Amino acid sequence: MKSIAQAESIDLRPALATTLERCYAVYDGRQSIAVEVAARVQKEENAMDQEQQGAPAMSAITISRQYGSGGGEIAARLARRLHWQLIDHEIVAGVAHELGITEEEAAAHDEYAEDFVSSVLNAIRQAAPAFLANAPVAPVSPAAEADAYHEALHQVVEAAVRSGHVVIVGRGAQVLLAQRRDVLHVRVVAPLKQRIVYVARREGLDEASAQARIQLKDQDRVRYLQAQYHRHVDDPLLYDLVINTGVLDLESAVELVSLALERKARMLRVPTKELGPVAGLTLYPGQPADLRPPPSIIDAEQPS
């Protein structure tokens, strides 16, 4: 056993140096981790900046949705993420203002194919009595009444898009704005069983009531688009992006729409005639082969 005098004579400098080296190594490791984390954060911020730089070139996003698919919630989250205005009930209010009727009267015809009430004509008479003073009094056809409503709806939607940076839910906006390249059109769908669960939970209904409500709302929307625009709501060519929330969660759907918005904004610089899947492609290296069904199957499908 060493004496105290011998212990006092031991050189501790190598041990201290080793300890310091280890401390520096730990510090350097932590510092490198911190640098890596900071780099990742900066990369994400740069991506967000690029997304925001691309997005301002776009004027609007339209969201068409199956009832209970979460499309309305996706629209609300998108508006918050992008700092855009959410246009839903506001369109009904805008139509009511244009026509001089109540919001309840306008809402009664929103996304429905029923005939519009005569209050539209009465509102026009009150707003411009001189214009109609000498006009012959004649019954107005339901078609003319519906035309007045939808013309007002069209004007309100166009005004919303002109204001810029809006997310429009429903109202046939995917058809009204179909020719505008600065608008992204999205359709949100989900399997019926999952939509029943969604509606039952969100609206406090039993499953039978939730299913009945889903079917009614979906039928109304199909009839509305067919009656007013002669288009089917499930036509995939009305949309830039169709999202199935049966597997994807709502936040992932928001991410996809945000990415599509940025990518479509890039394409605004490309002439219309150069758009499409052929852009940037060359001829196949060889003649593509056609893999057809067996003749027995083709013959069986032919009418006798």
Note the topology.
Elements: H1 4-8, H2 13-54, E1 60-65, H3 71-82, E2 85-87, H4 89-99, H5 103-107, H6 119-127, H7 129-132, H8 142-163, E3 166-169, H9 173-176, E4 183-189, H10 192-203, H11 207-229, E5 241-244, H12 250-266, H13 295-301
Parallel strand pairs: 1-3, 1-4, 2-3, 4-5
Give an overview in words:
The protein has helices at residues 4-8, 13-54, 71-82, 89-99, 103-107, 119-127, 129-132, 142-163, 173-176, 192-203, 207-229, 250-266, 295-301, and strands at 60-65, 85-87, 166-169, 183-189, 241-244. It is built from 13 helices and 5 strands. 57% of the residues lie in helices and 8% in strands. The chain is of the alpha/beta class.
Q: What key phrases describe this protein's structure?
A:
5-stranded parallel beta sheet, 304 residues, alpha/beta, Rossmann fold
Describe the structure concisely for a colleague:
This protein is α/β, with parallel strands linked by helices. It is 57% helix and 8% strand.
Distance between the termini: 109 Å
User: How many individual helices?
Assistant: 13
For CATH, the homologous superfamily of the domain at 59-132 and 139-267 is named as: P-loop containing nucleotide triphosphate hydrolases
- Average pLDDT works out at 74
Over the alpha carbons, how many angstroms does the gyration radius reach?
A: 31 Å
Order of helices and strands: HHEHEHHHHHEHEHHEHH
Beta-strand content estimate: 5-15%
Tell me the strand order in the biggest sheet.
2-3-1-4-5
Oligomer: single chain
Helix content percent band: 55-70%
What is CATH's topology name of the domain at 59-132 and 139-267?
Answer: Rossmann fold
CATH architecture of the domain at 59-132 and 139-267: 3-Layer(aba) Sandwich
Large-scale geometry = extended
Q: Low-confidence runs (pLDDT<50, min 5 residues)?
A: 4-8, 111-138
**Biggest beta sheet attributes:** 5 strands, parallel
Structural classification: alpha/beta
Q: Give the class-level CATH name of the domain at 59-132 and 139-267.
A: Alpha Beta
The number of distinct β-strands equals 5
